[in-house]
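cache lookup: miss for this entity combination. No prior model stored, computing from scratch. Input as submitted by user K.M.:
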Amino acid sequence: MAHSQLSLRERLEILADAAKYDASCASSGTAKKNSIGGKGVGSTEGMGICHAYAPDGRCISLLKILLTNHCIFDCHYCINRKSSNVRRARFTPQEVADLTVNFYKRNYIEGLFLSSGIIKSSNHTMEQMVECARILREENDFRGYIHLKTIPEADPELIHQAGLYADRVSINVELPTREGLTRLAPDKDERQIEGALAKTKSRIIQAKDERKRFKNAPRFAPAGQSTQMIVGADAANDADIVGRASALYGNFGLRRVYYSAFSPIPDASAVLPLKRPPLMREHRLYQSDWLMRFYGYAPGEVAQATDHNGNLPLDIDPKLAWALKFRGQFPVDVNRASKEQLLRVPGLGTTAVGRILTARRHRTLRLDDVAKLTQSISKVRPFLVALDWRPTTLTDRADLRAMLAPRQEQLELF
Amino acid sequence: MAARAPSVQNAALGSHYVVHLAAPDDFAFWRERARALIQCDVPPDRVSWVEPGGTDDLFAVGGPSRIPVADGGAAPVRVSKRFMKLARNAALHSDPERFALLYRMLWRLQSNSRAMEDKADADVRRIEELDKSVRRDSHKMHAFVRFREVETDDGEYYVAWFEPDHHIVRANAGFFMRRFANMKWSILTPRGCIHWDGKVMRESGPADRSDAPQDDPVEELWKSYYASIFNPARLKVGAMMAEMPKKYWKNMPEAELIPELIAGAQAREAGMVAAGEREARELPATLKAISSAIHTCRDCAIADCGTRAVMGRGASGAALMIVGEQPGDQEDVQGLPFVGPAGQLLDQYLAQAGIDRSAAYITNAVKHFKFRAKGKRRIHHSPTAKEIDTCRWWLEAERVVVKPRVVLALGASAARGLLGKTVSISKARGAAIALDDGAELWVTAHPSYLLRLEGAARDEQAALFVRDLSAVKTRLSQMRA
């Protein structure tokens, strides 16, 4: 293969293009560090920074590239699969490290998110990725963010080294169901993926524990581990996906489960549906993810918000869908209800609930006061009782959903 | 409002105080003066705060009064940590009222130490708003500052130009210092500059955009990355604009790519889907079926301009098919091909050549009107090669149904719609080109081209046009015979 003839810029184009189907770009939640007293550049101060936004609405925080898009695997949903007819290219670990530092010094990025197709063997590929992280950390004294996508089939010792250099490691479960994985990713094995997730989890816990006892114990992936599922490539419904995500959170201590709406990819495999990516569905899944992580909903409760096909409604958000199904729980009294009850009111976010809880210590809230504390009073009004407000019949109205659902724009997602 | 009873001293003076701040972000100075004023029981309506460049208000006429000095026995002023944090940040806002607002809140906190908890209070809300927009501005500075490298005798040096909304530059120096501790850099802004030499932070006055370097070769790589990481199948321009408002674009090298990325996205995505789907789709079998199907076509971006698809006109079985470029303003209004000025000119020349327009089938290579709005007028805009190629599918469907023996292409776009490649009119005209289905293609200029010419040039082109039409007429007669 003639990669030596491709310029750095051409290879960057190919290998960034090949990485764009990965949803994650987070650079938050890692250990605090900065470059004072060091030789290189870099800092992480807790909050991630989005250095640019692409017209697809996604944040660009990290240099997200593949080391190579050559691959010996043949996963149907992946643009880089063996049988795909795309242009191939590869970087050396040194080239990726140089590119990262050059971009970082100009304040384009927070760090590197490195992934790779499998060349030669899983171990060989993992070695190359670890080598890139080593150059950055040891030779350049780079203290920015590094996310390494690890390969579940690689030697556990290599994954361990990856975690010592990286802020975050991730392993993709790829598809929400085992049947989907068997059909679309014939070279991957669910048990192997889950085994690697479990091993990484125990290493993270172990390293945290050692840091408590020995100040100089090495850090291991201080920003934790994450995974990604592709939505819309197989038959899994939203209830399946939410159930799988909550099991993943519970079993493997994941920081995040990312959903990636399956995009029509150039030179797609014939096994896959060819249609626009279900972006709204992806959005609803993220909202349900939020309900479980920040609003105290159990996975079973999110599943209650799905329709008879097990899918979340696309026209309204899952919290509103749940409230409309369980109208007996509303209206709640904004001056007396518990935090947990207020969090279930459609239209009230965690910030608004916090503000209501402090403000009501000072006055008995009227509807006007609530309006000042929330984004949209018309959305929350049917579910609340205030000093001068009682939505007598609203929650009984048959057309409540129609009143609250956003007006139908051209639905183009399905 | 429950204020303290004014002290005898102030009641007697009843004067108005004006405090001039030395710098617009000098929170420490404000704090010191505010403390003294509170201790002397000066209510908020008797103090004006003036930042550099600001004007004194009406009350200040007659010259500033001296700031009172509290006697040693004055009670210490107390506020919560949370208020201090909020005030320190809100003081960086560019709102000229901010110091008065903060003083009013400080005054109120003396009689009600928990006043900040009342989130429905107007002052509390305003302070939180100021704090929020300053935090956002700082966050955008961390994100959108773009350094450019310059070579100096001392090695590499990095310079950025940034335009903040508020007085945040000095407050954010620490962030950049911690991040780029071992790099030499300057951040230039119209509100003042900061410079780091690897050891010491220096400040200087406002700079101009032209003081910053104008390029950096690494930007080409960065732009390539930006264009490649973007997924055209997921266009969400609103989400991008919310987080990266246009005002920042002029100082971000990658932002100049945005318009073309958006414009190209629909075509790229349509191509991605169409590449797999189109072949499998069956061509509509009647003119009626084509006519109803083209109205729902969204295969290229022109379809989203809000215009209607204009179907060809004529009988199936017509011996001659005339193909233009795309409907124009009039054609779009009436929903018929070739009814505008170019259509009228065409009619004239067809009559002159003895070709019966009503017996021919007339259509366009592209079915929607592509334009740019200029005031109330819609200015014709040529379709791209990609758009012509996308719409070719419909033209093929029409040809399969009509089965013309002679096809006359008016202009280069029409020729591309029939041949699938761009040809030069001057080279292609004057001789028949065989099409795959056995029909003959004749290429000539578009009549709108003649409309744009004047004088001798027009006469010359008109003669060529007439010659091409007569050749077509001759071929039609020969075929009929």
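stored under new cache key. Chain A touches chain B through 65 residues (CB under 8 Å).
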